[in-house]
Design brief:
Blueprint: E1 12-14, E2 17-19, E3 28-30, E4 40-42, E5 45-47, E6 73-76, H1 80-86, E7 95-98, H2 109-112, H3 114-123, E8 129-134, H4 143-148, E9 153-158, H5 164-170, H6 177-189, E10 193-198, H7 207-216, E11 221-224, H8 235-242, H9 250-263, H10 274-278
Parallel strand pairs: 2-6, 4-7, 7-8, 8-9, 9-10, 10-11
Antiparallel strand pairs: 1-2, 3-4, 5-6
């Protein structure tokens, strides 16, 4: 079914979620980040049903919704795939990140399939690299499509805590932690380059066991990132009430990073024979670091 063939429906409820279909005027947002190195961000949806209580996107200006409404509404961009197709000439040798402001595999993707249809467009752009970031096992519905990309696709999977009781407080409508581990394992077994995004870092019960679990899942690497709070953020009280203020401490984050360094030891460099070094071919252009490359862990497969 071509969603563009249907008139825009008025807002409706979907499992207590306010759904507000819209037609976007643009779909590719240029990104300029020296570390992450991707060229465009692409979001097939506005808003996110996961409703993570710490999400920085709450502060984005919105004429219809305030920060307190975050998690209660989603606007599917019905023309996202067609708009992307019309802009494909911009994607030669570029990187596309899905998505910077919303999870591309939130529950409505099961119905609208906008992320999949955008991926189908990107698959036809042979020099374009794709970075997917999600916290949802729903990504597995596109496993066949992801495999078709070969080494042009990387998945970052968000698992910010090893304790699902913590997840139930900070990400009340997001998938469970056990479900995410199972998804990472299936992606890795399918040959998809998947990296663990421990970000924003939440309370962790056992850092060493957490890191070992990540390594056993088949993840190629990991990234531990800090929490960004809004001004006078009510989430600070959530942390304080549960005794989790340590997640704001740099030393705490460094302790988690140390556990991951131990679980993902850097590969030893093999010294080349002198003759091979002398006769080396001219070097090619270096590949920019990927979004989920970690400065504490080995580089992505293929680097």
């Amino acid at each position: 079914m071509n969603l563009l063939s249907l008139p825009l429906a008025p807002p409706q409820l979907f499992q207590d979620l306010r759904v507000e279909p819209e037609e976007a005027r643009s779909i590719l947002r240029p990104q300029k980040d020296e570390r992450y190195g991707f060229g465009f961000a692409l979001s097939p949806y506005r808003g996110c049903a996961h409703g993570c209580r710490y999400c920085y996107v709450r502060e984005y200006p919105n004429a219809l919704h305030g920060p307190e409404d975050w998690g209660g509404w989603v606007a599917p961009k019905l023309n996202a795939p067609e708009l992307l197709w019309s802009q494909r000439h911009r994607l030669h040798e570029a990187r596309v990140f899905l998505a910077s402001a919303t999870d591309p595999y939130q529950p409505l993707e099961r119905q609208y399939r906008l992320t999949r249809r955008c991926l189908e467009v990107l698959l036809l752009c042979p020099s374009t690299e794709v970075l997917l970031h999600t916290r949802s096992p729903l990504i597995l519905q596109d496993l066949d499509l992801l495999r078709a990309f070969g080494d042009r696709v990387t998945v970052g999977f968000s698992i910010p805590t090893d304790d699902d009781t913590v997840r139930q407080v900070v990400e009340p409508h997001a998938p469970t932690i056990p479900g995410r581990w199972a998804a990472v394992e299936r992606l890795a077994k399918a040959g998809i380059a998947v990296n663990l995004a421990v970000t924003p870092l939440m309370a962790v019960h056992d850092p060493q066991a957490f890191a070992r679990r990540a390594r056993a899942s088949g993840a190629a690497g990991a990234w531990v990132g800090g929490l960004r709070l809004l001004k006078r953020d009510p989430f600070y009280k959530v942390l304080a009430d549960h005794g989790w203020l340590q997640v704001l401490d740099r030393d705490y984050a460094e302790g988690i990073r140390a556990a991951f360094r131990a679980a993902f030891p850097a590969p030893r460099k093999v010294r080349e024979p002198r003759a091979e070094r002398v006769s080396a071919v001219a070097p090619s252009l270096a590949r920019q670091p990927g979004l989920f490359d970690a400065d504490v862990l080995p580089p992505l497969v293929g680097d």
